[in-house]
Description:
The protein is mainly alpha-helical.
Amino acid sequence: AYARITEIRGEIEALQADIKEQLYPFERISLSDRGAVHALYDRYMALSEYDRGQLTASDAEGLIKCKTQVDTLYLALLIGGISLVIAAGVTAVVILRIRKRRKARAEKKMPESEE
């Protein structure tokens, strides 16, 4: 039992050190840090509720804030990309329809050839 407690304390201390090393300052977190943030968050969630409470409040809150931030950035990037594809598709359809209408009007205005 003592070995397990020591192991958990070691994990908590290592997690705190990794959070400070990899995520500080929290305001500078970008999408490139997504993998590290999720790895740290998974380690955090693997701890029991009691053990999570042993982390410094600022570290735990910062980690959750970072995860929320990178998830939001990823979602914004995804939505932006999808919006760009949809806008390009709509633009292409509109341009093709305009060309088709112009061609149809031009063919209507042409006099029929005599045969």
